[in-house]
Specification:
The chain has 333 residues and is mainly alpha-helical. It has 14 helices and 2 strands; from the N terminus they run ααααααααββαααααα. The chain has helices at residues 2-21, 31-44, 53-66, 71-84, 88-98, 102-122, 131-134, 149-156, 180-212, 217-234, 248-257, 259-282, 284-287, 292-321, and strands at residues 163-167, 172-176. It has a two-stranded antiparallel ribbon. α1 packs parallel to α3 (53-66), α9 packs parallel to α14 (292-321) and α12 packs antiparallel against α14. The longest helix has 33 residues, at 180-212. The N and C termini lie far apart (44 Å).
Length: 333
């Protein structure tokens, strides 16, 4: 009963995430954040539980809830999530940037990876461990990717020879047109550069915040995690709809930490979830046949992703500039 067991696993993980987020219901200030998580998951629909991303998102939420107070446990959870689907590595990078004892993050990653390798060896799958590094290299610009938006409209307007087509090897809709081959090659280094710049900004915010005495490591972790996860979305030639769940864990924990500070990205993410549901599963066929209205919905979603990324970068910068006088309630976790 594969499908039943899959849904059961996802349900248990989401239940664990809610219990951890709300301290088993005892943290009344976190209850609205729990409801937000449930609403977001509901709006994502099929994408929130029928894909591998639906397993990793609650794991990341629990890891962020442990956060800087229990970095080893958080790192183990993030490492497990990374071996399931690589995006939790972005959150682990944010954790590494802000914790006091970074060696715990490294040791947790090494120990978890050793366990994964041992398990792979036991079932004879060691040669497949690094497939995720090689399988994406030849794919083109996916239809829903943020940077594909100009070619999306060229295809809709039938300009410049741009067209949508199905890559049957990987079952993915892609867009072909003038410059897409070059952009596809550039996306990987662009993604790495964006991740490094965000990590550098997180390190700077921590260092500058410690000098000024106004640093809050938990807020830095959550802002860094959201910024890196959003960078993984914006600067990615793959824009699959289920990727939107990557953004929710940091926002949910952020709402539990400070509703007022995180209500803006929470609102944006709800709109992103609604737009994504219209894109898939409702009207993906229309989108892939150059429907201008669905192209507009996808464009709005992609613009919101860029705005969310800029908000997150600004949030990181402001956290690095805060002082005790400007934020008397903040304390170092």
């Amino acid at each position: 009963p594969f499908f039943f067991l899959w849904v059961l696993m996802t349900t248990v993980l989401n239940g664990w995430a809610l219990l951890k987020l709300t301290s088993r219901g005892r943290d009344h200030q976190a209850i609205p954040a729990g409801w937000w998580w449930l609403v977001f998951t509901f709006l994502m629909g099929w994408l929130g539980f029928a894909r591998v991303d639906g397993l990793t998102a609650p794991l990341v939420l629990v890891a962020l809830a442990y956060g800087v107070g229990r970095p080893f446990i958080a790192s183990v959870l993030l490492a497990i999530g990374t071996w399931v689907k690589v995006w939790p590595a972005a959150v682990m990078l944010a954790l590494f940037a802000v914790v006091k004892n970074r060696i715990l993050v490294v040791l947790a990653g090494i120990a978890t990876t050793a366990g994964v390798v041992a398990l792979a060896a036991a079932v004879g799958s060691v040669p497949k461990l690094l497939n995720f590094l090689t399988q994406q290299g030849d794919r083109g610009m996916q239809l829903e990717a943020t940077f594909t938006t100009p070619w999306l409209w060229l295809s809709v307007l039938n300009l410049g020879g741009s067209r949508m087509y199905m890559n049957t090897d990987i079952n993915s809709m892609q867009v072909d047109g003038p410059g897409t081959a070059l952009m596809s090659v550039l996306m990987q280094p662009l993604l790495i550069l964006a991740a490094l710049l965000v990590a550098g900004l997180t390190f700077w915010a921590l260092h500058n915040g410690k000098i000024s005495g106004g640093v809050d490591r938990t807020e830095l972790l959550l802002a860094g995690a959201l910024t890196l996860a959003t960078a993984f979305e914006v600067f990615n030639k793959v824009g699959s709809p289920q990727f939107m769940v990557w953004l929710a864990p940091a926002v949910a924990v952020g709402l539990a930490h400070s509703w007022r500070e995180w209500r803006v990205p929470a609102t944006m993410l709800i709109v992103i979830a609604v737009a994504t549901y219209f894109i898939y599963p409702l009207f993906y066929d229309a989108l892939s046949h150059n429907n201008p209205w669905m192209a507009l919905v996808l464009t709005i979603r992609n613009v919101l992703l860029v705005v969310l990324f800029l908000w997150s970068v600004r949030r990181l910068y402001l956290l690095g500039k805060k002082t005790p006088a400007a934020a008397p309630a903040l304390k170092e976790s």
